[in-house]
């Protein structure tokens, strides 16, 4: 029997969906979209769950409150990317027995802060014991004008709700050991507590397709594959500070973008112009499905929960 380690995340999702496929058949927001949805009367109700282990995702500069905030926001951004207004969240926590009461209170504070940022309710959850520790957060959202991840054509512009690349810095520091911790410290406020991109909900009428960028380039690649198109990425869409680091440390931009991950941002595909506070990051082009180019070079990278950095 094949082991889980032999699969990519997408391949395992396909296996699971093969067994549950009949239950996706009447739902336009299926297993390859950011969040599943059910239509009741004239509204769409989106549901998304996201989670991680403490060992995998808690960087040294994070408290448990920061981790809880980011996990909750990760699930919420998936809902927001579909045009859903987050209304409530629940959490399931696996606690290590050696954790202190202060750690548990930090998790609760992080969940509270995410509720405040999202203007959402907390509906409780579940406590468990775990050797490594983990946190799952589910978010419920409501929409009357949802956005899918389909309908792309060559020529469509690609925007993001903020510039790209800051999420690469922790990986370049702690995985690749290229940057010193002082570089990450300059961005700690943004990395610990990113703002939810709620303003996107005012602009869904302009949008053809959208996705959150939680898995970096792989998030974009998934949407491109579904639509059978490619994309050309603009260096101008990368944050100025990240471009400066690329030049100062002689790190190729394509290497930095490889480690882009938890952006807490939404990629917007449209034939229209977006408001000025959006960042134009590229355009849809003809080409092999899922390929992303930067200055004629194919970009590698992105995050896979089973394979790690691609």
Tags for this entry?
five-stranded mixed beta sheet, single chain, alpha+beta, 60s Ribosomal Protein L30, Chain: A, 14 strands, seven-stranded mixed beta sheet, globular, 2 domains, 310 residues
Description:
The chain is an alpha+beta fold. It has helices at residues 9-20, 54-57, 64-81, 101-118, 168-174, 181-185, 188-192, 217-227, 240-248, 253-258, and strands spanning 36-40, 43-53, 85-95, 121-129, 134-143, 157-160, 209-212, 230-233, 266-270, 279-285, 292-294, 297-298, 303-304, 308-309. The chain has two domains: 32-143, 60s Ribosomal Protein L30, Chain: A (2-Layer Sandwich), CATH 3.30.1330; 157-309, Phosphoribosyl-aminoimidazole Synthetase, Chain A, domain 2, CATH 3.90.650. 31% of the residues lie in helices and 25% in strands. The strands form three sheets. A seven-stranded mixed beta sheet has the order 7-9-6-10-8-11-12. A five-stranded mixed beta sheet has the order 1-2-5-3-4. Strands 13-14 form a two-stranded antiparallel ribbon. Strand 13 (303-304) and strand 14 (308-309) form a beta hairpin. Helix 3 packs parallel to helix 4 (101-118). The longest helix is centred in the first third of the chain and has 18 residues, at 64-81. The relative contact order is 0.16.
């Amino acid at each position: 029997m094949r082991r889980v380690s032999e699969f990519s995340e997408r391949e395992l999702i396909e296996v699971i969906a093969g067994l549950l496929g009949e239950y996706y058949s009447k739902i336009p927001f299926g297993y390859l979209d950011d969040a599943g949805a059910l239509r009741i009367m004239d509204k769409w109700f989106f549901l998304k769950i996201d989670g991680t282990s403490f060992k995998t995702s808690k960087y040294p500069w994070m408290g448990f409150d920061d981790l809880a905030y980011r996990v909750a926001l990760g699930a919420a951004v998936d809902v927001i990317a579909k045009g859903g207004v987050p209304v409530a969240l629940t959490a399931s926590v696996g606690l290590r027995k050696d954790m202190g009461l202060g750690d548990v209170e930090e998790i609760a504070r992080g969940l509270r802060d995410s509720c405040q940022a999202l203007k959402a309710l907390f509906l409780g959850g579940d406590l468990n014991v775990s050797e490594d520790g983990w946190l799952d957060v589910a978010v419920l959202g409501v929409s009357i004008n949802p956005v899918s991840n389909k309908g792309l054509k060559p020529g469509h512009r690609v925007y993001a709700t903020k510039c790209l690349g800051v999420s690469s810095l922790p990986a370049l520091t702690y995985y690749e050991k290229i940057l010193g911790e002082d570089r990450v410290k300059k961005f700690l406020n943004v990395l610990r507590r990113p703002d939810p991109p709620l303003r996107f909900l005012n602009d869904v009428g302009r949008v053809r397709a959208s996705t959150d960028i939680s898995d970096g380039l792989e998030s974009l690649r998934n949407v491109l594959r579904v639509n059978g198109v490619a994309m050309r990425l603009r260096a101008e869409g990368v944050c100025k500070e990240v471009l400066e680091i690329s030049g100062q440390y002689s790190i190729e931009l394509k290497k930095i973008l490889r480690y882009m991950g938890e952006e807490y941002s939404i990629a917007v595909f449209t034939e229209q112009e977006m408001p000025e506070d959006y960042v134009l990051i590229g355009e849809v082009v003809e080409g092999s499905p899922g390929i992303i180019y930067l200055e004629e070079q194919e970009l590698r990278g992105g995050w896979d929960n089973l394979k790690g950095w691609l």
